[in-house]
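Run Germin-like protein through structure prediction, thanks.
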Amino acid sequence: MMTFPVLFVFCLIFSSSYAAVQDFCVANYTAPQSPAGYFCKNPANVTVDDFVYTGLEVAGNASKINKVRLNTAFVSQFPGLNGLGLSLARADLAVGGSIPLHTHHGATEIILVAEGTVVLGFIDSNNKVYLKTLNKGDILVIPPGLLHFQVNGGNSPALEFAFFSSADPGVQILENSLFLSNLPTELIAQTTFLDTAQIKKLKGFLGGTN
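Sure, done. The structure for Germin-like protein is below.
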């Protein structure tokens, strides 16, 4: 029969090992990605650099159409986020810049305006619009899955940071789904009541077909 001191030491060792295994699951980019996400990197090969990301210190790639530069820190770039249920992004909006209507399925988003003025809005499932002009230091939260947008509302460049409740929030942009796809123009016209000529013009502008 196991004595109490021996049992105590055994439980302590077991709980310590279990805690170490459960502390984190740094993404292993060299292993095949499963539908559930990235496999865990061997803890013996994990370093502090896996938990540090410096990519948001600069603006991201520019969108000539929307006058916005986006830079993300999702799990695909930041391995330490794997399994933690959060990520973030940086958006630099030039004067007149906008981020069009889009959704992040299953991810809540919090937007912090760091510089300038940004007009933000989202639409709920009852088609009620929630619209607000935010200035430096203001924060707005967007519930998961709702259509939302951002527009530079001032006369100077704006900078914002977005925080997500998912390591890989994903994005579906409404205009891209309609006009950057091969969805037939006739069906778009029938389901949106948009003019056929305008749909073709937008498809030609964004690169859609059919």
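Residues 7-12, 14-20 have pLDDT under 50 and may be disordered.
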